[in-house]
Amino acid sequence: MRERLAIGALMAQAFVLAVLELFFLPLRLDGTLLPRIDDYQFPVTALVAIITTPLLVLAASWYARRALVAAAPLLVWLGTLLFFGLFGPGGDVMLVNDWRSLLLFAGGALPSAVAVGAFMGRQARAGDH
């Protein structure tokens, strides 16, 4: 029961992080929210995804016995980004059509996939003994 609750909480965190990362992806260094530096596009949420999404997968792997359960935060994160990115509030497309979206997806998915692979490797080694 405790494991299911922990996995559920990690999936909820992945959902919230995906929504926030998507909504703040178009941030610019224009002096409104961030300092003014020549209106440069600054995808700070991609950096957040690079750090937090693999940590969620790693935390889920502590409670998981199967790879699908360990990958659950990553799957929720990807599904949330795709759903809200393509069918956002009011039918708006929230994904910006440039390099920032690619960086967000790659930055969150690739390190998380490595974390899932590490979990699968540990499971395979444990099964050999």
TrEMBL record:
<feature type="transmembrane region" description="Helical">
    <location>
        <begin position="67"/>
        <end position="87"/>
    </location>
</feature>
<feature type="transmembrane region" description="Helical">
    <location>
        <begin position="7"/>
        <end position="28"/>
    </location>
</feature>
<feature type="transmembrane region" description="Helical">
    <location>
        <begin position="99"/>
        <end position="120"/>
    </location>
</feature>
<feature type="transmembrane region" description="Helical">
    <location>
        <begin position="40"/>
        <end position="60"/>
    </location>
</feature>
<protein>
    <submittedName>
        <fullName>Uncharacterized protein</fullName>
    </submittedName>
</protein>
<keyword id="KW-0472">Membrane</keyword>
<keyword id="KW-0812">Transmembrane</keyword>
<keyword id="KW-1133">Transmembrane helix</keyword>
